[in-house]
UniProtKB/TrEMBL annotation:
GO MF term list: structural constituent of ribosome
UniProt keyword list: Mitochondrion, Ribonucleoprotein, Ribosomal protein, Transit peptide
A GO CC term assigned to this protein in UniProt: mitochondrial large ribosomal subunit
Protein's name according to its UniProt entry: Large ribosomal subunit protein mL54
InterPro entries, A to Z: Ribosomal_mL54 (IPR013870)
One Pfam family cited in the UniProt record for this chain: Ribosomal_L37
Length: 142
């Protein structure tokens, strides 16, 4: 009886794997078949408008507007671009978004017990990710 259940579980897992492969294939086809169009037609060499098209574009906004607003950040149809605030009005975490974080190899060299909580969390995440990638590559070779 247990052998039959085990075989049914194996068949179910195989069906799930094949279904995942089919879904991935469909997604790859969907991504690969996206068409894109250029914004405008190409100007022929020697055409009258070719020199104007090659010239750098200048902005029609004044320097005052550029220095007080975040131009192009508006996502609403009837909205306006947001104003630039003083640095003190932004949250503290914003200034650390682009800070460099240690790589897995650097975290592995350090003692795990001496790591701060955030670095320890990052170490666990990166270590799990690398082990998953390694096991996937071993499975792919078989």
């Amino acid at each position: 009886m247990t052998e039959i259940l085990l075989q049914e579980e194996i068949m179910a897992l195989n069906n799930v794997r094949s279904l995942k492969n089919i879904i991935q294939s469909v997604e790859i086809l969907r991504i690969g078949s996206v068409r894109s169009f250029s914004a405008g037609g190409k100007a022929k060499k020697g055409a009258k408008g070719a020199a104007a098209a090659d010239a750098p574009k200048t902005s029609s906004l004044s320097k005052e507007v550029k220095s007080t607003t975040v131009v192009g950040a508006n996502i609403l149809k009837d909205g306006a671009d947001p104003k630039i605030l003083a640095d003190s009005e932004y949250p503290d975490w914003l200034w650390h978004v682009l800070d460099k974080r240690p790589a897995l190899s650097e975290l592995q060299r350090k003692d795990a017990e001496s790591l701060p909580y955030e670095d320890l969390k990052r170490f666990v995440k990166l270590d799990n990710r690398s082990r998953i990638k390694e096991s996937n590559s071993v499975r792919a070779k078989n």
